[in-house]
Write a structure and sequence with these properties.
The chain is an alpha/beta fold. It has 2 domains: 4-208, inorganic pyrophosphatase (n-terminal core); 213-332, Diaminopimelate Epimerase, Chain A, domain 1 (Roll), CATH 3.10.310. The protein is 36% helix and 19% strand. It is built from 12 helices and 14 strands. The chain has helices at residues 12-20, 35-50, 68-71, 107-112, 143-153, 160-173, 184-195, 200-208, 213-224, 241-247, 296-302, 320-332, and strands spanning 4-5, 24-29, 54-60, 76-79, 91-95, 117-121, 125-126, 134-136, 227-229, 234-239, 269-274, 281-287, 306-307, 311-316. The protein has a 6-stranded parallel sheet. A 6-stranded mixed sheet has the order 9-10-11-12-14-13, sandwiched between helices. Strand 10 (234-239), helix 10 (241-247) and strand 11 form a beta-alpha-beta unit. The longest helix has 16 residues, at 35-50. It binds manganese (II) ion. Manganese (II) ion binds at residues 36, 96, 122, 142-143, 173. The site of manganese (II) ion has 6 residues, from loops.
Length: 334
C-alpha cells in the first residue's frame, strides 16, 4: 500500500452533516501529535461537546508534556497495546493526516470502523483508501485552519477554550506566522482567535520557551557539525548517537533545528540528519520560498519520506554513515 497524492472527496459541509448526525464521536490524529494535531483534535472535540454530543480524543504515542497546558482539562486517551477507542462510536474523525503509516497503532481499530471515517487534512499525500470522506486542503496552513471553518459551519462560537487550541495549531504549523504557508486567511483567523481571548504571548512562552538545557547542548553540537554544499545553497547538520548521549537530549530535542541554517543568506535548503539513541535515522528538511525554491518533498521521497514542499522528512532504517553521503549527494544537486 503506497501513500500517494490525494484530494478532497467531499465538501466540509458534509463532514458537518456527519457530525450533526452522530452522537458518539472519536477523534484521532497522527502518531506523536504536534501542535496542529493537538490543536485541531482538541478544538473539534470541544466544539462537538458544545453541541451536546460525546467526543473522545485518542492519541497514539507520547503527546509531549509541552501541550498539557492547552489540553487541560479535556481528558485525552492514549492508545496502548490493550487500549483502543470504544467500538460503539458512530463517527471517527482523523485530523492532520490521512496516511496509514501515521496511524499504525490504530490500524486494527480503524479497519473495524471503515465506512465511518472522515479525514480533515492539509498534506499533499495520504492513503485514499482509508476513507472516501475526505477534506484535503493543501493550501490550508494547518489542519486547525480547516477545523476552524468546520466549527463555524457547526455554528459553535469561538470561546477561549476552542480558540486557544486552534491558535496553537496554526501558529506551530506556520512557525508562528513566518512560513510561506501563512496566508491572509490564516492571519484573519489568528485575529479572530485573539479577539476570542487567546493570550498569544503567554501561549508562545508555554509552548516555545520550555526547553530543557539538554536541547541547547544538543544544538551546540549540531551547529558544530555544519556542512555547506551546493556552492553555498545547502546546509547539513548531523547528530549522532554520541551527541545525544553527551547532551543528555531526547530524540524530539532536534525540533526546529532544520530551520536555523536558513538564516544564512545563500542557503536555500537545510537538512538535519539525526541518529537518535534508538530508532531509525531521521531526516528533517526545510527550504526557503521563492523562484529558486527547492522542493524538499521530492528530496524526502528519495529516502522513502515526504511531507510538504517547504518542510519534509523521512525515517530511514539504515546506518547513518550509509545515509549521510547519499543525502549530501542529493543536496549537492539542488
Ligand atoms: Mn499540520
Amino acid at each position: 500500500m503506497t501513500t500517494m497524492n490525494y484530494d478532497s472527496t467531499v465538501e466540509l459541509t458534509e463532514v458537518a452533516a456527519a457530525i450533526r448526525g452522530a452522537q458518539r464521536i472519536a477523534i484521532t490524529t497522527h502518531v506523536k501529535p504536534d501542535g496542529d494535531a493537538v490543536g485541531s483534535t482538541l478544538a473539534l472535540a470541544r466544539a462537538i461537546e458544545h453541541l451536546g454530543k460525546s467526543a473522545q480524543v485518542w492519541y497514539a504515542g507520547p503527546d509531549g508534556e509541552v501541550f498539557y497546558s492547552v489540553i487541560d482539562p479535556t481528558p485525552v486517551q492514549i492508545v496502548a497495546e490493550n487500549r483502543r477507542p470504544p467500538d460503539d462510536v458512530d463517527l471517527v474523525i482523523i485530523t492532520d493526516t490521512g496516511a496509514r503509516s501515521q496511524l499504525k497503532d490504530l490500524a486494527d481499530w480503524l479497519s473495524r470502523h471503515a465506512g465511518k471515517i472522515a479525514i480533515i487534512d492539509h498534506h499533499i499525500q495520504g492513503d485514499a483508501d482509508l476513507s472516501d470522506c475526505r477534506v484535503v486542503e493543501p493550501k490550508a496552513a494547518a489542519a486547525a485552519e480547516i477545523v476552524a471553518d468546520l466549527i463555524e459551519l457547526l455554528g459553535v462560537p469561538f470561546d477561549r477554550s476552542i480558540a486557544e487550541p486552534l491558535y496553537l495549531g496554526i501558529a506551530t504549523d506556520t512557525g508562528w506566522f513566518r512560513f510561506s504557508n501563512t496566508t491572509s486567511k490564516t492571519l484573519r483567523l489568528a485575529a479572530k482567535l485573539v479577539d476570542a481571548g487567546v493570550d498569544h504571548a503567554d501561549l508562545f512562552r508555554r509552548i516555545e520557551q520550555t526547553d530543557p538545557p539538554g536541547r541547547l547542548r544538543l544544538l551546540a553540537r549540531a551547529l558544530t557539525s555544519l556542512e555547506i554544499v551546493a556552492g553555498g545553497r545547502a546546509a547539513i547538520l548531523t547528530l549522532r548517537r554520541s551527541d545525544y548521549e553527551a547532551s543528555d537530549a531526547t530524540p524530539d530535542d532536534t525540533h526546529g533545528f532544520s530551520d536555523l541554517p536558513l538564516a544564512v543568506e545563500s542557503i536555500e535548503v537545510a537538512c538535519v540528519i539525526a541518529e537518535p539513541r534508538s530508532g531509525p535515522v531521521k531526516l528533517s528538511l526545510r527550504s526557503k520560498p521563492g523562484p529558486n525554491a527547492v522542493d524538499v518533498n521530492q528530496v524526502a521521497r528519495l529516502f522513502g519520506g515526504g511531507g510538504h514542499a517547504r518542510a519534509s522528512g523521512a525515517k530511514i532504517d539504515r546506518p547513518i554513515d550509509e545515509v549521510r553521503p547519499e543525502v549530501i549527494e542529493a543536496l549537492s544537486r539542488v
